[in-house]
Amino acid sequence: MAGEAAVYSDEEVEALLERRYREMLARRQEAERKRRELEEEARRQEILRLILTPEARERLSNIKLVRPEIARAVEDRLIALAVQGRITQPITDEELKSILAEIYERTRRDFRINIREK
After folding, report:
1. CA distance 86 to 78
2. What do you get for the CA distance between the two ends of the chain, in Å?
3. Which residues pair with 19 in a beta bridge?
């Protein structure tokens, strides 16, 4: 038996080829999805670069490190305003602070700790 060539039926060869094709297709689709995500993020960053002063961009970057969900919400809001043409000049750091304070007030949660004695 040693040294014999493996013999595959036509069905086995077809199944192998089909599996390889599906794997290749899945990899291609994943690569395309990642490429689209990168392009979308590049567009977002370009818009933000145009509508924020350098100081405001830096503040937003710092916030993104600590609270990425808040930073994303602010970015989405600013981009929507820019697309609508409602931002005519770059947003300063002070203006960004007031936007952040407004969002903080709406999303702030009050925590109460009740201590019950037994």
Report:
1. 9
2. 79
3. none
